[in-house]
């Protein structure tokens, strides 16, 4: 009877979860129309009921169900000047940053979708188990515990099945098509303001470019086809003349707003990428359905046909494509392979068609040779500034270390030598003691000097190459680091030094700020690019805009036209990809290939 009471109590709690489902659907509808502030609180309120269910199941059945959610994001930290910073934005109060982080945390957590499915199905299942408890008692209660643990417990990542991957790819095709439709809407808005409100054209164009950038980003994330931005770099900010006025053409202005506005308008009108984006917005929604409509039609026809065969909901479904009607169970068995074959044929070309869709987008939205040249000139100017700043900072660091460390020790040693000279005649014992201290101080100075030299360029990097130098850094790290490498011998030494210091900085950040325990470093060289992938199991939340160490890595990479790609969701894991374009060292060690794995 105790098990029956508990099973019916859980069933009553489960029925209330339909209220949570209704509230979540209303909040999602409001989210779709721009009212974004309600979704996160509603989901977190529903999680309270889910947590209570897990607690009761654990108390009544002895089966503990851990929390399935990722760790919550950290609280915003106030800067020294009293502001809260999120990326490049400053806020006087922390509530918006807190809400934005929690919204991202909820939306990106796979447990959110599983929990919604559980809330939707759980009332029916709980009532079934409650009815079974009248007969089987504790067995039904334990069965409900297993059901709850399956939905609300943590899950290890599993490899997706072939149909799942193909259906996901088909969804990616539909997603790219939806983004191109949104870009078409922005293009219509651009044309309207171009002929009716030209001063607003730069604002609308920036919004349209944001949609086009979304297509480029998602195409690379879903298909691996990288689409670079084609836009010519923006004009520089206006500089006042000697009389304090700002000039644009033959017109003078007292304030910089109008010159900057006119310069940006001319920049966008003269940039060919603006008009190519508009052309792509017209072509992509019309042409790309040729790639996904046949697959979607076959999959829908096959799935609905399968339902129609065994539920009887689709009378005449097969006659509409010229197939014989199904009126018996034998006919249903005979037509089932046909429906499965339709689904299979619809899913088969999806990987090829989604890449074709992304490549068409790259042809329309990618950069031209003129825009590549303009971007390269702009990037070289930026790299020159970055390299100059990085060199100046490195020189200041070396000067500070020499002045505060080695120089002070040498001065002290000189003073002690003078004392030894004064004491050696009338107090030999004291002189010997000072000489021993001098010997110890000289050893410490030598150790500090070697450490300074390693900070400039480690000897192991020059003697044994990048792979062994990274392994040595992994041994010195407080983390348990696994190093894997596939590098064909020695590379250009400046590129090796850049990658080495980037890896060391990333490992240091993982141990100091990420609170990680384990990390992996993968080194590979492919198609003229040295790639270092550093992954740790820390708390995540790393931001290149806030971290001075990450900014230093970007400065180093800018001198090699390299890049740093950082993925660090709140709760982790953190993955940093460092790419350095370089060539093989033409020395005698270049034919050697290092392919190995080692744990430090």
From TrEMBL:
The chain crosses the membrane at residues 25-46, 124-145, 174-201, 278-311, 331-350. It holds the Pfam family Sensor. Residues 586-600 have a biased composition (Low complexity). It catalyses: ATP + protein L-histidine = ADP + protein N-phospho-L-histidine. GO terms for cellular component: membrane. It comes from the Bacteria. Residues 581-600 are annotated as: Disordered. Residues 173-365 form the Putative sensor domain. It is an enzyme of class 2 (transferase). Its EC number is 2.7.13.3. Residues 394-461 form the Signal transduction histidine kinase subgroup 3 dimerisation and phosphoacceptor domain. Keywords: ATP-binding, Kinase, Membrane, Nucleotide-binding, Phosphoprotein, Transferase, Transmembrane, Transmembrane helix, Two-component regulatory system. GO terms for molecular function: ATP binding; phosphorelay sensor kinase activity; protein dimerization activity. PANTHER family: NITRATE/NITRITE SENSOR PROTEIN NARX-RELATED, NITRATE_NITRITE SENSOR PROTEIN NARQ. This is histidine kinase. It comes from Amycolatopsis echigonensis.
